[in-house]
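Section 5.1 Outputs to date
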Amino acid sequence: RQVVWAKKTHDLIESWWKTPMCGEMGIALVSCSRMNHSPVPPIWKDVVFGVREMSQEEVAEKGRLTGEHTSGLEMLTFTAEPVRFMPFLMKQFKDQGGEIKRAKVENFKDLFNEYDCVVNCTGVYAGSLTLDKKIKPLRGQVMRVKAPWIKTVTLDDLDDGNYVIANQESVVVGGTHQDGDWDRTPREEDKQFIRSGGKCLDPSLKDSVEVGHWVGLRPGRPEVRLERDGIDKKLVHNYGHGGSGITVFQGCAEECVDLVKEVLQEQNITSLQAKL
């Protein structure tokens, strides 16, 4: 299911990459190395371009803060910088008549009198509305640096691994994967881990200039919850994507639309015009 979602998303991003607006959207085609991924070959090998297994000599050339890498994959794929990508999509939404309303929602039932269907995309905070015990924060602290000579992506897929991701005007170096941690303040010990681990993956980072540190809370869950609610028939859930939201968004959106159509058809509603 996730591979299908990723394929649809990858194909959409590829189509956008071929347009003049790709730079504004933060989309780039990059060479990517993924270390310590399991299984090999990956189940998503047909989603990206040109996956190949690295030789042991190539794997050994990549440093690691603790221990050594056991395997490596190389491929071409896309990056989409959220700080550019999300505002672009939001502008598209507004240009097509979409509205943004800010309000505190304490119960989904409060929305059912106003809306024919409600889609729950509350992410890491979904548990406060659904009482879902499976959703919890996966804390990620990262660093942004100036290193214009870095044009590639290197990811260490182990939980204690680092990563280096080239963006258009800077490079993102990470990162942490701290389960159940709500702290959004950058920690000094994590800064040191990111600095040291990043330099192991790419020693040229020693010449980079730090721009800043920040923390995000991924909506961690054993699996994405994409389904209709079992009790509230007007409610569709779409949350728990972890750190893969940009990787699978289009596939999830298309499946979510199908569920919304089911909800509306049961109410004999044929128009798909959204209010919000």
